[in-house]
Predict the structure of SDR family NAD(P)-dependent oxidoreductase.
Amino acid sequence: MLDFTGRVAIVTGAGHGLGRRYALDLARRGARVIANDIDAAEGVVAEIAAAGGVAVAESTSVATPEGGQAIVDRAMAEFGRLDVLVNNAGIARTNEFAGIVYDDVLASLRVHLLGAFHLLLPAWRVFRDQGGGRVVNTTSAVGVFGQRRSSVYAAGKMGIVGLTRVLALEGEPDDIRVNAIAPVAQSRMAGDVYGRLDPKLDPAYVSAVVLALAHHSSTVTGEVVSAGGGRVSRLLLAATEGIFEPELNDDVAAARLNEVCADERVVAVPGCAMDEIDLIRASFPELADFRMAPR
């Protein structure tokens, strides 16, 4: 069992479902936990205390910069350090795109995407000063692959992927590892989506992966990891072989675009944007000695 003794973890959305499980499991393994939830933090803290763990309830909303700062400040005031940030808080706003109202857009993004920023901005300063930290953001297969009635949610969750990738690159020199979990589990938000599969989707399976990513021994960074029902996989953003046309124009593009978009021959899994751009450079033999450099 992974040991988190002496470590301090913030878990947002910790009152129910997956967040509750993360908080309980981290505390069970020795972490001191800031359990954040706007309406149910006290309950999970009581459970942790009853099991002999240490946790503090924090009910500030993640939807504002002030809220994020307050949650990080609470960790520092109570325990003097911060080692793990699990950005788990979420809300459900599903509708066909034609039925969306702008208030739902703002509400969803303020929690899912901006909420991550609100915690990460103050936590990042702490991690850099301490010389390390672990971040587990929450994305979704809905963001990566799409799903009807989920445009707002998907936009926020794909934003989390981009944020995770960039922060992993920037945090590596300071031993700040940043990953995203794409969970599949029983939860209030999921409701009856999974049907007969639901009994197989114990949150414990997802929590096991979150704890592995959050542990100080983990060197994994910049990844999107799908977890559910005991299955764990890497979700990829990849580049296909595509085509190269030195005299490309709109007629050629129109004629070959279906071919390009049907191509499943993966030739690279870029580690950053410049890796993908380097595939263009590689089409020019005269630039063989000019590999694009990450920056």
